[in-house]
Every structure is written in C-alpha cells, then in structure tokens.
Write a structure and sequence with these properties.
Elements: H1 3-22, E1 28-30, H2 31-36, E2 47-50, H3 53-65, E3 69-74, E4 78-83, E5 86-91, H4 102-106, E6 109-113, E7 116-120, H5 123-133, H6 140-151, H7 156-163, H8 167-179, H9 186-199, H10 204-222, E8 232-236, E9 239-245, H11 249-262, E10 267-273
Parallel strand pairs: 2-5, 9-10
Antiparallel strand pairs: 1-2, 3-4, 4-5, 6-7, 8-9
C-alpha cells in the first residue's frame, strides 16, 4: 500500500471517529490498522470499527449527515459507511459470535493515528478474533495473529479467558506458533488444550468407559487388600488395561480379580509388574 493511500485510510478513519465521538458512540479500532501496530506490516490496512449492534444503528444517521454514504450491509453482523472510494466497516458481531462487550471495552488500548489517540482492541482480543476468522480464502488472519504472538507481550490470563469458548481453534494457532519458533508459556497452552478436549462431544460408549475407569480407580485406591492408587487404568474399546508396579504377586492377582468383578463384560489386559527379588 502506498503512503498516500494509507494516509487516506487514516484520514477517513479520523473523519468517522470524529462523528462517533460527537454522537457519544463508543467504538474500537480492529482489523488491519489495529493489527499492524502490534504485529506485522499489512499490504491492506482496512478501517474496521467494532461497536455494539445498538450503537451501529445509532451511528448510521450521524455518519450520513456528515457526508458518508451508509448501508445496512448484513443485519447479522455488519454495516458499511463510504467516503468516496474509502470504506469504513461497522462490525457489531465478529467471527465466532464475539461482541463488543464490557470485557473487550475494559481491555482497549490507545493507538496513535496521525497524532490522535484512537481506542483499539487489545492484542489478546485481536489474536482470538483472527484465530477464529482464519479460513482458506483469508489466510492473512492466521499470519497476522502469528506475528502478534511473536512480537508482543500478552496478558495470558485474559487471552485464555477470551479464548475458552473457541479453545480448539485458538490452541491450534498457539501450537503452530510454537512449532514455528515462538516461545510461548506452557500453562496457557495446556489449559486451552484441556478445555478443547473437554468440549469434544463424547460418544455414549466413551462416557460409559470414563465412568468404569473412575469406578476401577476408586476401588484400587480404597480396597484395603490392594491400596494401589498409583496403578494406571485405561478403558477403551471394551477393554480394561491396567499398568504399573505392585509390591507382590498376590497383590497383582488381587487387582486382576477385582477388575474381572468390576468389568465382567470387558476384556481384561494386565500389564502389572512385580519387582524382582
């Protein structure tokens, strides 16, 4: 993008936010202009403003009075305002159902545009939104987010909080970033990975296997003749697999007998070991 075109985008942005400020309408900058300041340079720096649905409706009249041509492009998520050939998107629902809610507003950051401070989305919210918005025909979102992860100090607690409803998509981005050389803390990745696994729909038989495994582990830990809470138990495909090391052959036999009583319909596979000597 040439410097002149970029300046035109910024001038139109300031013209639009002047209107919103005068009308008392809260908003935040998102999209390419916001992402470029915390990640990588973009060949396109679109003017995207994030606001509530109510305020997007309220903005159309003042924008038209100021000389913009406004349209209700998609009542589900987007209105547009045109200044000549320049476009301002008024977004009130981002990909994944993300809204301009109180949490987002509490984490806005100031961004300087032509010497003026504009409220912009936090780096954390941009990462989450771009992870969700990524698609085959718009891979730029993925790479924008990767650049932010590589270049920006993040509030990981807030990022995890915002990412929870979209854990699988966001953790896939984070894991890719690690594979690409970014140094990210392990705890947020683990937390989001566990959340993503928890969100996977369980088949009925899988749920039954989980319950059986829990009953077996409880019995192993509480049966006074066994008392082996550290023994590993896996239940899958109608098979109960028990692994670990036990003190005596008699205890190994007692565990195997217990498994047969608790899971008579399952195939029992014992991989228990008794130390030599």
């Amino acid at each position: 993008m040439s410097d002149r075109i970029e300046q035109q985008h910024e001038e139109v942005l300031l013209r639009a936010v002047d209107v919103l400020d005068q009308a008392g309408i809260p908003y935040a900058l998102m999209g390419g202009l916001a992402a470029a300041t915390v990640g990588r340079e973009r060949s396109t720096k679109d003017v995207d403003l994030f606001l509530t649905r109510k305020h997007a409706e309220a903005a159309l009249g003042p924008l038209e009075q100021a000389g913009f041509r406004a349209e209700r492009t998609d009542p589900g998520w987007l209105f547009k305002a045109f200044w000549g050939e320049n476009l301002v998107d008024l977004i009130f629902e981002s990909s994944g159902g993300i809204l301009f809610d109180e949490e987002v507003r509490a984490h806005l950051r100031p961004l300087s545009v032509l010497g003026r401070e504009i409220p912009a989305l936090s780096s954390e919210d941009i990462v989450v939104i771009k992870a969700i918005a990524n698609a085959e025909h718009r891979p730029r979102h993925w790479h924008d987010a990767l650049a932010i992860l590589a270049a920006t100090e993040l509030d990981w607690s807030y990022l995890v909080q915002r990412a929870r409803p979209h854990a699988a998509r966001v953790v896939s981005l984070l894991l890719y970033a690690v594979s690409d050389g970014s140094e990210l803390p392990a705890e947020p990745l683990q937390e989001l990975f566990e959340e993503a696994m928890h969100q996977l729909p369980a088949r009925p038989e899988t749920e039954g296997e989980h319950h059986l495994a829990a009953r077996v582990r409880e019995a192993l830990a509480t049966n006074p003749e066994i008392a082996e809470p550290e023994v590993s138990v896996v239940v899958a495909n109608h098979q109960v697999i028990v692994r670990g090391e036990v003190a005596t052959p008699s205890r190994k036999t007692a565990i195997e007998d217990l498994l047969r009583r608790l899971a008579p319909a399952s195939d029992i596979r014992s991989e228990l070991k008794v130390p030599a000597g």
